[in-house]
Design brief:
The chain is mainly alpha-helical. Helices cover 56% and strands 7% of the residues. It folds into 2 domains: 97 residues, no CATH class; 81 residues, no CATH class. Strand 2 and strand 3 form a beta hairpin. The longest helix is centred in the middle third of the chain and has 21 residues. Pfam families: Peptidase_M76.
Length: 183
């Protein structure tokens, strides 16, 4: 492991320890447990990822991996990435989400973008500083855009991403479980 890789790992681990105590993350972990799914101690971990395009990954076999080579230990990114991927884990646990069903994946991507903080106005302003920020419907536009982008990068959904998101939009964007509201 190079010194840069060791530094990335240490920064990620430090941020992750703090993220796990975040109220939003704690609520999702509690909900997963209450839904009857076991959460091993290493369910959320830092590790390098193959792709530069993602901050974190959920696998029903491996749990949540924070991509330490892409996240650079930034606490705000780690917090959102952990919450985003834990929403996927919660959906997998409570709804028997089929990882090969584009509609199921679309719903979980909508929920994760909606509930993780990915589309908070402060994040959107940072993400698109040159765009004129619209207050009206900006959150939903972000949720839809991010869900479609995520599905387009999935070889199972690819070209069907937009249709999959549209087919489940209404029910999934209004499903705030386990919070009851958009945190």
């Amino acid at each position: 492991m190079s010194s840069k890789e060791a530094e990335n790992h240490a920064k990620c681990e430090t941020s992750l320890k703090t993220s796990i105590t975040d109220q939003r993350v704690h609520t999702i972990l509690d909900a997963i447990s209450r839904s009857g799914c076991y959460i091993p101690p290493d369910f959320v971990k830092c590790a390098p990822c193959n792709t530069n395009a993602t901050a974190a990954v959920f696998s029903n076999q491996k749990g949540v991996t924070i991509c330490e080579n892409n996240i650079f230990g930034r606490r705000d990114l780690v917090d959102r990435a952990v919450a985003h991927e834990l929403i996927h884990a919660f959906d997998y646990c409570r709804a028997n989400m089929q990882m090969s069903n584009c509609a199921h994946l679309a719903c979980s991507e909508i929920r994760a973008a909606n509930l993780s903080g990915d589309c908070h106005y402060s994040v959107e302003i940072q993400r698109h500083p040159l765009n004129i920020f619209k207050l009206k419907n900006q959150h939903n536009e972000c949720v839809r855009r991010r869900a479609i982008l995520s599905l387009k990068s999935n070889p199972l959904c690819g070209e069907d991403a937009e249709q999959a998101v549209d087919s489940v939009w209404r029910s999934c964007v209004n499903d705030y479980s386990p919070f009851g509201y958009i945190p």
